[in-house]
Amino acid sequence: MRALFWLLDTAISLYVWALIISAVLSLLIAFNILDTRNRLVWTIADFFYRITEPALRPIRRFLPNLGGIDISPVILILLLQALRILLQEVYVAILRSGVGV
């Protein structure tokens, strides 16, 4: 039981880091600091886009147009952190009940 909660917590943490890296990469590309004509840059940016976009797209549908500012990664990170807290509370409740020992 402990390994399952650890695995879920680690996966959520890694996805939060992927969201942060994706947001920073998109900013660096938008300000022409990184050039997507470089194959390595394009490959890395495409990878992070592909793993984060499916989770960000539904959030973007509900957000109003903020004039080029995308706050969907921040909202998703807050939701994922809330999920981590919920998982920790469930884990502690299971430990206190003695079921998962």
How would you describe what is shown here?
With 101 residues, this protein is mainly α. It has one domain (2-97). It has three helices and no strands. It has helices at 2-30, 39-62, 72-97. The longest helix is centred in the N-terminal third of the chain and has 29 residues, at 2-30. The mean pLDDT is 94.
Give me the secondary-structure category.
mainly alpha
| Percent range of helical residues | over 70%
Largest sheet: none
Cα gyration radius (Å): 17 Å
Backbone shape: elongated
This entry's quaternary arrangement is single chain
**Count of discrete domains:** 1
Question: Could you list the spans in which at least 5 consecutive residues all have pLDDT below 50?
Answer: none
Give the key terms:
101 residues, membrane, 0% strand, mainly alpha, single chain, 3 helices
Q: How is this structure best summarized?
A:
With 101 residues, this protein is mainly alpha-helical. Helices cover 78% and strands 0% of the residues.
What is the strand and helix layout of this fold?
Layout: H1 2-30, H2 39-62, H3 72-97
Helix pairs in contact: 1-2, 1-3, 2-3
Keywords: Membrane, Transmembrane, Transmembrane helix
InterPro entries: CCB3/YggT
Transmembrane segments: 12-34
